[in-house]
Every structure is written in C-alpha cells, then in structure tokens.
Specification:
- The chain has a five-stranded parallel β-sheet, sandwiched between helices.
- The protein contains eight helices and eleven strands.
- It is of the alpha/beta class.
- It folds into two domains: about 1-120, Rossmann fold (3-Layer(aba) Sandwich), CATH 3.40.50.2300; about 130-220, Arc Repressor Mutant, subunit A (Orthogonal Bundle), CATH 1.10.10.
- The protein has helices spanning about 10-20, 30-40, 55-65, 80-90, 105-120, 150-160, 170-175, 185-200; strands at about 1-5, 25-30, 45-50, 70-75, 95-100, 130-135, 140, 145, 170, 210, 215-220.
- This is Response regulator transcription factor.
- It holds the Pfam family Trans_reg_C.
- Keywords: DNA-binding, Phosphoprotein, Two-component regulatory system.
C-alpha cells in the first residue's frame, strides 16, 4: 500500500494504523516519488492527497493511470466540493474521502477497494510467489493462490509483516499473537514459526522468516 501525503501529522497515524492491520505500507510525500514508487513496485492501493508540494494530486492520478497502473486509487483531500470529487473520479480515482476523516472509515474504504481489486483481477496481477495478506479477511496469498494458515500462524505473520525487514522480539510476538498474560512455553512460538516457514516455502513465497539469534524473527524479501 502506498500513501502519498506530505503532512506528517496526517501521514504518521495513518501509516501506523494500517500497519497494525497487517498491511505493508510505504509512504512518500511528493507526486514524483509516488510515480517512481509505482513504477518500481506497484501497490494494490494508493491513498493519494491532492495538495502535494511538487504537483497536483490529480496529475499524479492521471499519470499513474496513463502509465498502466491498475491498482485502486483513493483520493483524500480538504477539497470537499462536488466538482473536485467528480474531476477526481474522471482522472481515474476509485474513491474519494474528504478531510478530516475518521481512521475507521478509511480502513473500511480500503478493505472495500481491496475486495473490488482482487475480485476484478482474480489475483492474477500478483507475481508468482508474491506474498499478500488480506488483514480484513484473515487470508494469505502467494501470487493468486491462497495459503492455508492456522489462526496463530496468521497472527504471527501479521505481526512480522507490519514490521517488515525489522527484527520483532520473541516477547513482542508472544504478547501480540497470543496474550501478554500467557505464561506457556516459548517453544510454542518456535513450533508455530516452523510450520509457518514450511507453508510459505511450500507455496513458493519469496519472502523468508529469518531467525535473529537471541532476539527474535524478521520477515524479509520482496513485497507486492
């Protein structure tokens, strides 16, 4: 998921909220950076502010579509007028949310866009072996194929994915995937990680769950 927003006080809570939902989030603050990011690694959803410092967000929307970007585009802006809404949709946006907005509403809109995008494309636009986590449906996909995970395997993967390429401590994994008051053996985590690794490997997922000795685990590799 790509967030294009130059206002830190808006971008920070938005990124944090979506990461907690299990989405892999990239954030840029200019239109050109957004276009460069989409060219290098197309996101399934782009959340796009119109008031960017280098170019109008509508131009970013139009150029993204002209370059072949097929993901969903949600415009968020303080321009709440009917004319802007219609123009934004004409430029290729899929949805429009006026500032200020509630994070719960934005999350619901994102889930709806993902369902629409995946349903429309049948998952075929995902590269083979690319990992995608549908946090709302608690489903995991390798390319266009679903990977069957248990509830705890999904929870562990979601925590790791929210901190992609960063080490997550064993204590944090236990607290978030189980319960902070759970006092069972930490071997339960190792068993769950082992099963998760095997399932991802069998499905051909290119991402790897890497153990960092004495600290915890890290999810690393390419993402959609």
């Amino acid at each position: 998921m790509l967030i294009v927003e130059d206002e830190e006080d808006i971008a920070f809570p938005l990124v944090r909220t979506l990461e907690r939902e299990g989405y892999h989030v990239q954030r840029v603050d200019t239109g050109q950076e957004a276009l460069d990011q989409l060219a290098a690694r197309p996101a399934e959803v782009m959340i796009l502010d119109l008031g960017l410092p280098d170019m109008d967000g509508l131009d970013v929307c139009r150029k993204a579509r002209e370059s072949g970007y097929e993901g969903a585009i949600m415009i968020v802006t303080a321009r709440a007028g009917e004319l802007d809404r219609v123009v934004g949709l004409d430029y290729g946006a899929d949805d429009y949310l006026a500032k200020p907005f509630g994070l719960a509403e934005l999350q619901a809109r994102v889930r709806a866009l993902l369902r629409r995008t995946v349903g429309h494309n049948g998952g075929s636009h995902l590269p083979e072996g690319a990992l995608r986590i549908d946090a709302a449906a608690r489903r995991v996909f390798a390319g266009g194929s679903e990977v069957a995970l248990t509830g705890k395997e999904f929870d562990v993967l979601s925590v790791l994915a929210a901190q992609r390429d960063k080490v997550v401590s064993r204590d944090r994994l236990m607290a978030e995937a189980w319960d902070e008051n759970w006092y069972g053996s930490t071997k339960t985590l190792d068993v769950t990680i082992g099963r998760l690794r095997q399932k991802l490997e069998n499905a051909g997922v290119t991402d790897k769950v890497v153990a960092v000795r004495g600290v915890g685990f890290r999810l690393e590799g390419a993402d959609v």
